[in-house]
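A quick aside before the break. I want you to see a complete sequence-to-structure record at least once, exactly as it would be stored in a machine-readable document. Don't worry about memorizing anything.
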Amino acid sequence: MEIEEIVLCTWEDLAAIVLATNIPESVNIEFCQLPQKFSDPPANGTVLVLGYPYDQAIVVEKSEEKDTLVHKQAAKSDGFLGEVVTTSKLLSGFDAERHFLVKFYPSHQDGRPQGYSGAGVWLINSDEGAAGIWNADPLLTGIETHGYEKSGLLRVVRSNSVRLFLEEAIPEL
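That is the input. The structure line, written in tokens, reads:
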């Protein structure tokens, strides 16, 4: 797949990778419709944070190229359930209109909150499908962009800000 463009957000720490439309049929990719996959965060509920934290990357190959040692790494996915929290503390860069906070619960000892930057934050959709059977259909509620290590909190860009950026950056959505 070819990258057609990388669009950077000027008012938030977000970027969008626009793929070329000539995706071969052999590539097994299915895209979701964005308006159906966005949600507001719960006021005092739990969200699922799924990402590829850098402290979980593993070296899969070492080589030397022109007197330079090259380490190729593989990203390992990780996730946790965290509570949406409110705080009266002044946190650098936090704006309650555009962000919300999630308590960080590392899945391993020494896990660091900064490693989840860019992770999707999902609301578990509790709607039941046909015949009352629960279906896995999480709703994107934001993108994690910053970790406050001392407080153990993550700053998440709300889905409405993510949607606004995507609509401005890629009008054909």
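Two observations worth writing down. The domain at 33-159 is CATH 2.40.10 (Thrombin, subunit H). The first strand starts at residue 3 and ends at 8. We'll return to this after the break.
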